[in-house]
TrEMBL record:
Keyword Cell membrane tagged: yes
Disordered: annotated segments: 11-38
Protein name as catalogued: L,D-TPase catalytic domain-containing protein
Keyword set includes Signal: yes
Active site, UniProt feature: 319, 337
Entry's Gene Ontology BP terms: cell wall organization; peptidoglycan-protein cross-linking; regulation of cell shape
A GO term, aspect molecular function: peptidoglycan L,D-transpeptidase activity
GO cellular component assignments: extracellular region
Biased composition (Gly residues): 11-31
Lineage, highest ranks first: Bacteria, Bacillati, Actinomycetota, Actinomycetes, Kitasatosporales
Native source species: Streptomyces sporangiiformans
Length: 394
């Protein structure tokens, strides 16, 4: 919509400022005003009153025969939309996508070569998506986690515009550290620094996904800030050969615990693994992870595994073992998990498994070495640390 400015002799004015005419307060001067309107023309797209406006690419402000000097865009809550006027003053575009189902107001001013202003205003409403996507993330807002915890978000729809989605997720840290994202397939995006987090780091993640088109016709619906804090550093190293685990906290060895790892036919993965779940008691059935007997039942089905903590999506845990009390420190007998001595029912807090459970938090790191198996894949659990920084950024 073009602004038609009207000026009146001796004062007043419409959408354009008057020029350097005579005194307009009646107290002297010639009493003559510059009746010329600004030559600048401001154009706002989309047009005033438009509905069902796309959240990306539709909003643009331009100036002809002049230069933009001010552009203000905000929603009905008064929240501003950031953007930047080009160096030549010819146009303005938003820095990011707009939210869906939201009404916006635009106010823009341009000046012509003689400094006279032209102003334009417009309101429009963005589309209401028929199809949406959300991201399920970890860790939880407000949590305190170990130094190995990435920020991981899994989307319920496959993403075909990954660059746009990644741009809309902003990770800030205090103290500042470089954090990069890495896609695993088209539905999972993890963020981490080059090395383990520094204890005490505060991490803030802004999910600006509302209105973002993640795939054709499918828009995000989350606008959320997630904050979490990195706790003390705890990195435990399991040596499958010596059958011992050394627990190191804040750089100091605090405990050595006998363990049993995978048997020769079912060895434990090597590599850096992150604790992603904790269960004081849980059921473990071999059939759920591919260990079955000829009759189709699981090779094992233990209904009350004590002090279990997940290390991989595929079923690797570090947990208490009461059914083979002789094994920790002496023999590797598991189907790939790491076992620590424990009692049935998880009632004895003095058992090694209970101590480790009570002294571990989500995001703590467990490293397995000297096993006969391969290194765990980076996307099998929250285990991106097994990928080099160069590959991670690529």
């Amino acid at each position: 919509m073009l602004l038609l400015a009207v000026t009146a002799c001796g004062g007043g004015g419409g959408g354009s400022d008057s020029g350097s005419g005579g005194d307009q307060d009646g107290k002297g001067g010639s009493g003559r005003a510059d009746t010329k309107t600004s030559r600048a023309v401001v154009t706002i797209a989309p047009k005033n009153g438009a509905d069902d406006v796309d959240t990306s690419g539709a909003l643009k402000v331009t100036a002809a025969k002049g230069k933009l000097t001010e552009v203000k865009v905000e929603n009905t809550k008064g929240e501003p939309v950031e953007g930047e006027i080009t160096g030549d003053g010819a146009s303005w575009t938003p820095a990011d996508h707009l939210a869906s189902a939201t009404k916006y107001k635009v106010h823009a001013i341009a000046k012509d070569s003689e400094g006279r202003r032209a102003a334009e205003e417009s309101t429009f409403t963005t589309l209401t998506p028929k199809n949406t996507f959300v991201g399920i993330f970890t860790p939880e807002d407000g949590s305190k986690v170990g130094v190995g915890m990435p920020f991981s978000i899994r989307f319920d729809r496959g993403i075909t515009h990954p660059e746009d989605v990644e741009k809309a997720i902003r990770v800030k840290t205090e103290p500042a550290v470089d954090v990069e994202g890495h896609w695993f397939g088209n539905d999972r995006l993890d963020f981490r620094p080059e090395k383990y987090w520094k204890p005490g780091t505060k991490v803030t993640v802004d999910l600006d996904l509302d209105g973002l088109e993640g795939r054709p016709g499918v828009y995000g619906e989350q606008a959320k800030t997630v904050e979490f804090t990195i706790g003390r550093s705890q990195v435990s190293t399991v040596d499958a050969k010596s059958k011992k685990m050394k627990v190191v906290r804040d750089g100091k060895l605090i405990k050595t615990i006998p363990i049993t790892s995978g048997a020769p036919s079912t060895p434990t993965y090597n590599g850096q693994m992150v604790i992603s779940e904790k269960h004081k008691v849980t059921r473990m059935n071999g059939a759920t992870v591919g260990f079955t007997r000829p009759d189709g039942k699981g090779e094992y089905d233990i209904k009350d595994v004590p002090h279990a903590m997940r290390l991989s999506t595929s079923g690797t845990f570090i947990h208490g073992n009461y059914w083979a009390p002789y094994a920790p420190g002496n023999q590797n007998v598991s189907h790939g998990c790491v076992g620590l001595r424990d009692v049935k029912g998880a009632w004895d807090g003095k058992q090694p498994a209970a101590w480790f459970f009570d002294n571990s938090i989500l995001g703590d790191v467990v490293i397995v070495k000297n096993s006969k198996d391969t290194t765990i894949q980076p996307d099998n659990g929250l285990n991106g640390w097994n990928m080099s920084w160069e590959k991670w950024k690529a």
